[in-house]
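Input record (one chain):
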Amino acid sequence: MKKVLILGYGRSGRSAEKYLINKGYEVRIIESIENVIGNLKDTIENLQDYEFAVISPGIKRTFESPIPVIAEVELPFHFGAKPKTLICVTGTNGKTTVVRQIYNSLLLSKKNAVLCGNVGMPITSCEIDGRIVVCEISSFMLEECKILHPNIAVITNVTQDHLDRHGTFEEYKKIKERIFENCSKKDKKILGGTNDEIVKRVCKILHVKPCLEPPIQKHRIEKVGQRNGMTFYNDSKATNIAATLFAVSKFKENITLILCGKTKGQDYLELAQKLPENVKDIIVFGEMTKEVITKIRKAFAVMCMEEAIDTALTL
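The corresponding structure, as predicted from the sequence alone:
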């Protein structure tokens, strides 16, 4: 029986496992290969027995390999998958909204479409032959892409994000631009624009009526409740500076902004310079605390969300 490796066992890895078992492969799972430097053959015994390795987006490749390493999102195309139309959308912000609006437009026009990738199901869990495939692509997914060939390729925008993984903004931007790499003159490339503009352009190409109703997404400017006259919103989908600035721009009232999570290598001086005047107070906790209070002097440092809420109520 043919053998294959799967590197990483999250949602994409588990999906790839089922896909390859159905193709008749014996699958070996390597859940974690953190800190592997040098050659993969020095870490995995009998590597020569495996035809190729499938790498999950969550795994950062820091090694060489004598066998092919394939991105999960490209796996079906190595086996000859032929969608009717492949639409791939990437970008720092807006890509989830855009793919959902394109997909909804197709459904309302009674087109045979599937939504997959970084949103919805992994592509290896979907039947894509003969269908219009709307696929959200992250920079983590694009890192290992070599043969991905969208008929319609979109970059919504590129601002600093994931610099802890990609090193520099220039490298991050370069990886995003890989989505255009295999496009021919017949394919359509869209770079930038508002979400609605992009959706209209894609729908015009597809000859369907655009559905511009914003899709409901959890944790995106989501009203979660009130306490002592203060209204709280959960915008934890905003994981970078540009998304945070977009969220606060939607409010005219005075804002107390609670920040937490990973820095991802971002420079919070940009946030300090661009925050609107109605952001009166900033509270921060977690990994980003030191970086934020260094760049934003008026920020209050606390230990946890409960303390952040209590502090917000007293300011």
